Amino acid sequence: MRYLNLVLVAVLLSVSSCSKSKQTSIAPIVTPIVVNPVNTTLKDMPFKFGASVNARLLENNPAYKALVIKEFSSLTTENALKFATVHPLEGHYDFTDATNIVNLALANGKRIHGHTLNWYKSLPAWVTNFQGTTADWENLLKTHIQTVVGQFKGKIASWDVVNEAFEDDGTYRNSIWVQKLGTDYIARAFEYAHQADPNALLFYNDYGQEYSTAKRTAILNLVNNLKSRGIPIHGIGLQMHTRYNQSDANITSAITTAAATGLMVHISELDIALNPDNNQALTYTATLAEQHAAKYKSIVKAYYAIPKAQQYGITTWNVTDADSWIPTEYSRPDWPLPFDASYQRKAAYQAILDGVK
Ligand code: 9MR
Predict the structure, then answer these.
(1) How far is the CA of 273 from the centre of ligand 1 (A)?
(2) pLDDT digits over 328-337, tens only?
(3) Which terminus of the chain has a smaller tally of CB atoms within 10 A, N or C?
(4) Phi and psi at residue 102, in whole multiples of 5°?
(5) Which of 56, 76, 79, 272 for mutating ligand 1's site (highest number of atoms within 8 Å of CB)?
């Protein structure tokens, strides 16, 4: 023990005398900061980068859960807060899935985005069969929104308040909500949500804003109208379910025109299909992987060019090619996400990081 101490003292003395005698002649050593790409994750992007997450997979698949925790700084509830899930019977709410996702997000320092308070799809039978006066329908809309938002007040940072209210030709979708309440129910949906959580950021969310000018214009008109009336709307969600061969010009127009409203812009459901023509025999090749990566990069670049304060973030719809909704929905092979079916990073992953360099 004593011998060890002596050795230590001797070593320290020699180091200090050595550095003293040479300190005037040696330039200070500057340790270079090496960015290790292995340790870099999507959490390190200069804006929030998220994914929509599936409650069942988080519950049953530890590798999926680990990937979600490791990579993302924001989580969107894929299905857990849709009307049919959260409010399956009249007067009966089931917050189980949503609560699990919210708790996971909060425990891991992630922002949580709620999807969606109002949609024409995923409605339970009790709503589609509901019989009542206009006032009864208004009460149904208001009660649902305020119960769900109120349940997660202070925890869910932002909401897709109204989802997909327009057709691709820019006309209002003839949804059950428009049939029962007229198109201005949209404004009231935002007001109801705001009353339930005045700090929550409220978004209008829709797809096709990159490929349909008519739809984009209709959405911008709606949003500007709501703004001018003082309705509490804070952002536009560009779903961006797009394809590898969509033009950069169209994508950039959707992003810049949304930003021109002054509201925040959320690329809220990003995925890039490689097989939009439903070719059953298509296989994933290096060429497709590169085209995929290039489109991810150009989307990230265009997004990063809007004012920082308006960059609410980019969220992919689902996490990996194994859980993407696209192959199931269209019964075709496809590889739309930055992680492959074995949860490995694809070329698109690096392209996302490169998009902000
Ligand atoms: O990914 C979702 C899928 O699991 C559901 O079955 C489907 C119906 O609720 O909705 C999918 O998510 C959609 C989202 O809610 C709105 N934009 C389009 C998404 C893909 O269809």
Answers:
(1) 15
(2) 999 999 999 9
(3) N
(4) -60, -45
(5) 79
